[in-house]
Design a protein that fits this description.
alpha/beta, 8-stranded parallel β-barrel, 10 helices, globular, binds 2-phosphoglycolic acid
Length: 235
């Protein structure tokens, strides 16, 4: 059984200075952890400093998005070539990208292709099974590369955004994650995301088919994130 994976998604929070403070507070503790994989996803502006501070540790760094375009006249975009060498992971298809930036399934597929070409592991958010079907209808890349992708079942209503905590039930999350694997037809990594906190993390991670969590709000405070990590320590 693989170690569970915990991903910190800071979203649009943290200046470079705040990134350094987070890492200073958490690094020594996180480095001691050997029972879980940890991936920290800061905003683009903090990726170089975070990658350099976590260099030579077991803690991995990921981006929160990537352009669907490879290169060119696309003002404001960060392409996969720019992330190459800086990160090993990248979140794509997050429901906040859809809600606030009009991203659609075709965009997500292009992003997945770009990342896979550069051997950056896509952390693919799946809001529901219809969305997964839509990805699959749009090409073979997701199914063909399923073992190189981290799937995150993350129902938009469970995301803590406005401080309105409505986590999905661990049983439903486990069932839906199982269905993602069934659709892929092979063993894949599936995480749960949405309002994970130190109190509920074990109830999700201990469920069948849930191999870890994508943690937003509760990851922005290094002490709370470390509490989450500590709480899943095997007995
Ligand atoms: P949340 O966010 O933990 O704040 O609900 C999870 C996510 O959207 O990645």
């Amino acid at each position: 059984m693989n170690k569970p994976t915990l991903i910190a998604n800071w979203k649009a929070t943290k200046t470079i200075k705040e990134t350094v403070e987070w890492v200073k507070t958490a690094k020594a503790d996180l480095e001691q952890i050997d029972y879980t994989e940890i991936i920290v996803c800061p905003p683009f502006s903090s990726l170089p400093i975070a990658s350099s501070l976590f260099k030579d540790t077991s803690i991995k760094v990921g981006a929160q998005d990537v352009s669907k375009f490879k290169k060119g006249a696309y003002t404001g975009e960060v392409t996969v070539e720019m992330l190459d060498g800086l990160v090993e992971y990248c979140i794509i298809g997050h429901s906040e990208r859809r809600k606030y930036f009009g991203e659609v399934d075709d965009d997500v597929i292009e992003k997945a292709k770009n990342l896979l070409e550069y051997s950056i592991t896509p952390i693919l958010c799946v809001s529901n099974l219809d969305q997964l079907d839509s990805y699959l209808e749009r090409g073979k890349v997701i199914i063909d590369s399923a073992e190189k992708i981290i799937f995150v079942y993350e129902p938009p209503g469970a995301i803590s955004g406005g401080g309105d905590y409505k986590p999905d039930s661990p049983d439903v999350a486990s069932e839906q994650s199982g269905k993602i694997e069934e659709k892929m037809g092979k063993k894949v990594t599936t995480l749960y995301g949405g309002s994970i906190n130190p109190d509920n993390v074990v109830s999700f991670i201990s469920k069948e088919n849930i191999n870890g969590g994508l943690i937003g709000q509760a990851s922005t405070d290094p002490k709370t994130f470390f509490e989450i990590v500590s709480n899943i320590k095997p007995a």
